[in-house]
Design goal:
Blueprint: H1 2-26, E1 29-34, H2 40-55, E2 59-64, H3 71-83, E3 88-91, H4 99-108, E4 114-117, E5 129-130, H5 134-148, E6 156-162, H6 170-181, E7 186-193, H7 198-211, E8 217-220, H8 222-233, E9 242-245, H9 250-257, E10 263-266, H10 269-280, E11 298-301, H11 306-309
Parallel strand pairs: 1-2, 1-3, 3-4, 4-5, 6-7, 6-8, 8-9
Antiparallel strand pairs: 10-11
Helix pairs in contact: 2-10, 3-4, 5-6, 7-8
C-alpha cells in the first residue's frame, strides 16, 4: 500500500507541475481596440490578427469604439483592458493627439504594454507601431495621378472624401496627396471629412457630387468609393468622375477588377495584423517611434494583374466583439 501511495504521490506532483504551465499558456490574452468594423479594411486587419494569434495559442478580445468620434468609449476600453490584466493592448486609435487620450495611454502603459495598430498615435509610451505611413499612401496614389496629368496638360479637378481630421491617418494622407500633386495639372478643389461608416461617407459623396458636379476625379476612402459606385450607377449623368480609393477593401478590389475603380494603394491590412502579433512576440523588430513598421505599399491600377492576387479577409468573416 505504501508503494502505491508513493507512486500516486509522485504522479500527482508531476501533474500539478504541468497544470500551471498549461493554464498560463491557455490564458494568454491580448486586447484589440479598433475604431469600428463598419469599414471593411479593419476586417482584414482583424482576420490577420486572428490567424497569427491562433497559431501562437493567443486569445484576442476585440473591442469596437463605434467610430472616430467615440474617444471616451475607447478610453473606457483601454482602462478595462488594463484592469483585466491583458498581456498586451493592440490599439487602433480613434485620435492621434487628443490630450486626454494620450494621458490615458500613458496611464495604462504603466501596467500593460501598448502597441500602435494602423493609425498614427503620438504617444511616446507605445512599445512600437505596426502600420504604414499614411503620407506615403497619399503620395503613392497622387504620383500616379500626376503622371497622368503633367503640369503643362489640361487642368483637371478632384474632390477628396476622407476621414475625420482627428484621426491618425486622414491628415497625413491629404498632405501626401497634395504634395505629390504640386507639379501636376490636377487640383483638389474640395475636401470632405466624416467618420468612415458607409452612411456617413455616402452623405459626403452626395454633397460632393451636388457641389462639384463636373469633377474629373473622386478620390475617396474605401466606403466613399463604395457609396459612389452605387450612386453613380443609379444616376443619369453626362459625365462621371473617375473613382480612386485611398485604401483597399473588398468592394474596392472588386471595383478595380471590373473597371469601376481606377487605382488604389495597397498596404496589405491582413499582413499588418499578422505582423502585429509577431511584433508583440518579438519576432518582428520594431522601428524606433514615431516610425512605423509595416508592409511595402503597392499601387494597384486597372489592368494590373497584381490586384487579382491581393488577399483580404474571407467574405463571411466578422470577429466576435466584446
Amino acid at each position: 500500500m505504501r508503494s502505491i501511495g508513493l507512486v500516486l504521490g509522485v504522479w500527482l506532483l508531476a501533474l500539478l507541475s504541468v497544470l500551471p504551465v498549461r493554464a498560463a499558456s491557455a490564458e494568454r490574452s491580448f486586447c484589440v481596440l479598433v475604431p469600428h468594423f463598419k469599414d471593411e479594411y479593419w476586417l482584414s486587419v482583424g482576420y490577420g490578427l486572428e490567424q497569427a494569434a491562433r497559431q501562437r495559442g493567443i486569445t484576442l478580445r476585440f473591442f469596437e469604439a463605434g467610430g472616430y468620434h467615440a474617444r471616451e468609449r475607447q478610453i473606457e476600453q483601454l482602462r478595462f483592458c488594463a484592469a483585466s490584466r491583458a498581456e498586451a493592448i493592440l490599439l487602433g486609435a480613434v485620435t492621434s493627439d487628443h490630450p486626454t487620450f494620450l494621458a490615458t495611454v500613458a496611464e495604462v502603459s504603466q501596467s500593460v504594454p501598448v502597441f500602435g495598430l494602423v493609425n498614427e498615435l503620438h504617444a511616446p509610451e507605445l512599445v512600437g507601431a505596426i502600420g504604414v505611413d499614411w503620407q506615403d499612401m497619399g503620395e503613392s496614389l497622387a504620383r500616379f495621378l500626376a503622371e497622368r496629368h503633367p503640369q503643362e496638360s489640361e487642368p483637371k479637378t478632384a474632390v477628396l472624401i476622407s476621414g475625420p481630421a482627428e484621426s491618425g491617418w486622414a491628415p497625413p494622407l491629404e498632405l501626401g496627396i497634395r504634395t505629390a500633386l504640386d507639379n501636376s495639372s490636377l487640383r483638389i478643389v474640395r475636401v470632405f471629412g466624416a467618420d468612415t461608416g458607409l452612411r456617413q461617407q455616402l452623405a459626403m459623396v452626395e454633397e460632393a457630387l451636388a457641389e462639384v458636379p463636373d469633377m474629373d476625379y473622386l478620390i475617396g476612402s474605401a466606403p466613399a468609393v463604395e457609396a459612389a459606385i452605387g450612386m453613380l450607377a443609379s444616376q443619369d449623368r453626362a459625365t462621371r468622375p473617375q473613382l480612386v480609393s485611398t485604401y483597399i477593401s473588398h468592394t474596392v478590389k472588386r471595383g478595380l477588377l471590373n473597371g469601376q475603380v481606377l487605382a488604389v494603394p495597397f498596404d496589405d491590412p491582413m499582413r499588418q495584423g499578422e505582423m502585429m502579433i509577431d511584433a508583440v512576440e518579438g519576432l518582428v523588430p520594431l522601428n524606433a517611434l514615431p516610425s512605423f513598421t509595416g508592409p511595402d505599399i503597392l499601387l494597384l491600377t486597372q489592368g494590373n494583374t497584381s490586384a487579382d492576387q491581393v488577399k483580404l479577409s474571407p467574405s463571411n468573416y466578422f470577429p466576435t466583439i466584446e
